[in-house]
Amino acid sequence: MSWLDDHPEIRNIRCGAADLNGQARGKRVPVKFARKIEEEGTRFPLSVLNLDIWGEDVDDSPLVFEIGDPDGVLRPTERGYVPMPWLSTPSALLPLWMFTEDGAPFEGDPRQALARVLERYDARGLTPVVATEMEFYLVDDSGQELRQPKSPRSGKRRTGADILSLRALDAFDGFFTELYDACEAMDIPAEAAISEVGLGQFEINLVHVPDALRAADDAWLFKMLVRGLARRHGMAASFMAKPYEDFAGNGLHTHFSIEDTEGRNIFANSTHDGTAVLRHAIAGCLSTIPDLALIFAPHANSYQRLVPEAHAPTGICWAYDNRTASIRVPGGSFAARRIEHRVAGGDVNPYLLLAAVLGSALIGIEDALDPPPPIIGNAYEQDLRQIPATWAEAIEGFNSSVLAERIFPRLLIDNFVLTKRQELHYMAELSPAQQIELYLDTV
Description:
The chain has twelve helices and 14 strands. It has two domains: about 5-105, Glutamine synthetase, N-terminal domain (Ubiquitin-like (UB roll)), CATH 3.10.20.70; about 115-135 and about 205-210 and about 245-440, Glutamine synthetase/guanido kinase, catalytic domain (Creatine Kinase, Chain A, domain 2, 2-Layer Sandwich), CATH 3.30.590.10. It is an alpha+beta fold and about 450 residues long. α2 runs parallel beside α8 (about 350-365), α4 (about 175-185) runs antiparallel to α5 (about 210-230) and α9 (about 390-400) packs antiparallel against α11 (about 410-425). Strands 7, 8, 9, 10, 11, 12, 13 and 14 form an eight-stranded mixed beta sheet that branches. Strands 1, 2, 3, 4, 5 and 6 form a six-stranded mixed beta sheet that branches.
């Protein structure tokens, strides 16, 4: 029995997949045609997963004129239907991923890239257990400048940051109540919500799950939900890395541990330091940060977040329970030892992010790499190798990286580089205000 049989209220569906920028690309279909898509899939041009941030074809893409812009076959993922509570008409989304005509996974699909990394873990009898922290701003964008939206309760705007403030959460109680109800309906495991450092900034944690594909799905769907639901409440929600020059940026921090076939955390032992495998994974994550910066910071605006003393890492280092480090081992129970990768902005593609983070850790494990000693104190004040500070540097670093090729198919690397070079070229024509307008609701 189809999910739709239990939800007769659904009047239409969207079927779609994430492109390299994390944008949902797909079709709106009357519900009476849904069964055909469930059974046979649907078809898009392969190039649809390789559009730029404006939704335009990428110049010189090998997927377009060079091979005739052929179709791929998109099939439903194991996620199945999810409702779309931010729409006024009862609707459902059927997430898809792309295959070639002969049934092989399409190497330009970011979800397939993550699946490929997870196959390598599975071959070793290992399972990553993954959680994400989703930071976003609620924004009044009705005027010339972005502002904190008025509280629906008081009609007033917050005038300063209010870290971990219950009052700030209560001011938008209606929005957050609907958001949690919607997460329940969409089976997104939303946990604690907090007010963050920035003005109108909040964070919601998605709980650890032993399925990285599902964790990436959850993050992708959550971003779609938050943006859509905020508009229903008369405001915008933005995951862009740095919507305000003077306030902290949005991060998308990833927490993960790794379990063996018996469900044991291979990072944990009875000591504070954790296992040798933990240190190998940390070393792998550190080794790839320069090469994979384009994954962690994919847009022009991303690099405004990666500046010293702005609650985002700039130096390549690790530490125990130190939020100035790019790789952090959180405190707590020794049995719950895990890694927190803190480099990525909220504007990332979750599938590429988790492929990059987990692929990096696996490189460290496979090569038995050892990290430098953990830092102590303020990372901003120490002499450390720095995360690439410009978009252009990150693009070329990703293109030439041997480590990136150990994680991602060459086709995906080439497509992503071509996409970002095109965006870099045309972004130079936009004013800062136009860039914010482009990214605010998009990423």
